[in-house]
Amino acid sequence: MKKISVIIVNYNTKDILKQCLTNLLNIMSSLQIIVVDNGSNDGSYNMLKKDFPNVVAIKSKNQGIAKGYNKALKKAQGDYYLFLGTDAFPTKKSLVGIVTYMENHSNVGVCTAKLVLRDGTLDMDAHRGFPTPLAAITHFSRLNRLFPHSKFFNKYFLGYKNMAKPHQIDLCISHFMFVKNKVFNDVKMWDEDFFVFGEDVDFCYRVKQNGWKIMYLPQFEVLHLKGVSVGIRKSSGDITTASKKTKSNMRKHTTLAMELFYKKHYQNKYPKIITLLILFGIKVLSWLRV
C-alpha cells in the first residue's frame, strides 16, 4: 500500500476535528496526518497536542487555506496527498480503493469520491465544471435547475454525466481531493492569493492545463458535513460554531474568489464586453450576499 499523507487545515472546529482524526486513525493507522491550525481560538491546537501526539500539528496565523496547504506540503512524505476538510469522513474502502485506481491509471493526477451530505443528497461541489461565462450565467440564473441534465445549461455541475460510473470532471473541492505527489512537479504550490474558496478551482485548472486527468469515482462514498468552519452552508447551519464575523467574511470571500479566478484565467481569453459583464455580475452578487 502506497503511503498517504492526509492534509487538513483547521479553523475553530475543535470538536469536529477530533471526530475527523479519530475516524482516520480508526480506519488506517499508517496514515501520515498533518493538521495546520489557522489561528483557532477554540483550543483546537492544544487538543491536537494532547489527544493526537502522532499527528503533525502546525500552529499558524490565519493566512488562508492555500497558505495552510503549502505549509503542510513541506512536511508531507506520502506518495499520495489527501486534502481533507475537518468535516469529511472517509472510509478505509474509499482510501484504499482510490489509491488502487490511481496506481492503475498513470495519467490520473486527481481523484475525488461521491460526497454525500447528512440528508443523503449529493454534494455537487465535488462534481464541477470550470466556471466559464456560460457555465456561470446558466448557474446563477438557475437555468441549470430547470434543465439539470442538459449539457448546454448545466455545465456548472456537469449534470449530463452518468453519476453512477467513473468519469472525468473539471474540478472537485479540496475537502476530499486525492492528489498524486508527482502532480506538484508540474503544478507547484497552491496559489496563496486565494484566501478561502476558489483555491481548489484554480488548482484543478492548472492540473488540467498540465495534462493530468481529474476523476470522479462514485463507487467510493464519503460523508461530508459541508461548511462547518465557514458557517454559511445550510447543510451544517445547525452544527457550525462560526461567529457572525466569520460568516460575514466568508460571504465576501465567495465573490472575491470568483473575481480573482476570472481575472487570472479568463480575462484575456474572452472579449472585453464579456469580461465587463461577468465582473459586473460578480459585483452585484457580492452586494446581494453581504
UniProtKB/TrEMBL annotation:
InterPro entries: Glyco_trans_2-like, Nucleotide-diphossugar_trans. Residues 5-184 form the Glycosyltransferase 2-like domain. One of its GO terms (molecular function) is transferase activity. SUPFAM superfamilies: Nucleotide-diphospho-sugar transferases (SSF53448). The keyword Transmembrane helix does not apply. It comes from the Bacteria. The keyword Ribosomal protein does not apply. It comes from candidate division WWE3 bacterium CG10_big_fil_rev_8_21_14_0_10_32_10. Signal peptide: none annotated. Keywords: Transferase. This is Glycosyl transferase family 2. The lineage of its organism: Bacteria, Katanobacteria.
